[in-house]
Amino acid sequence: MSNRGPSPSPSGARGGSAPAAPANEKELVRRIILEGDYQTLVDEADRIGQELVGRRLTTSQIRNVFGEVKRLQMRFDPGRLRMLKPKLAYMGARAGQGGQRLREVMTAAVDAVFSGNPSESEVLQRFQRMVDFFEAILAYHRAYGGRDR
Predict the structure, then answer these.
(1) Burial degree of 86 (CB within 10 A; 0-12, 13-18, 19+)
(2) What pLDDT, in 10s, does the model give residues 52-76?
(3) How many CB atoms sit inside 10 A of residue 91's CB?
(4) Quick check: is 48 in a domain?
(5) What is the extent of the structural domain holding 49?
(6) Contact 33, 129 (CB under 8 A)
(7) Which of 35, 54, 79, 104 is the most exposed place for a label (fewest CB within 10 A)?
(8) CB 129 within 8 A of CB 36
C-alpha cells in the first residue's frame, strides 16, 4: 500500500494517474465556450492536460494543431475554423489515444463555437474562449511533465 497522498499539483507533477473524463464532458466544454465559465475552463484544462500526459501525447503533437488555432486568431475565418475538425481527426489517428482524446475535446469546442445561430461577434467571442481553453490545456500538459518525445 502506497503512502503517497493526493496526486501532485502541476508545479511538481510527474505523471500519476489522470482523472477519468466526466460523463458530461461535452456539456462542460459547451459551458466554457458558450457561457465563458472560466473556473470550469481552468478545472477541465487541468484534468485534460494531466490525462494527455498519461496517454503520452507529446507537446509537438499538440502544437501542430495549436499553431493552426493561433493563425486563425490572427486572421479569423469561420471556414478555416470548421476545417480544424479534419485536422484534429488526422492528428487523432496518428497520435494514438492521447490524440483521440484531444480530438474529442477540441471537436466539441469547435462545435460549441458554431452552436445555435450566433452573430459574427458572438462567434468571435466563443472562438477566443476556445483559444483560451486550448492554451490552458497545453499549459497544464506541460506542467504535468508533457514532453516532446
Answers:
(1) exposed
(2) 999 999 988 898 899 999 999 999 9
(3) 20
(4) yes
(5) 23-143
(6) yes
(7) 79
(8) yes
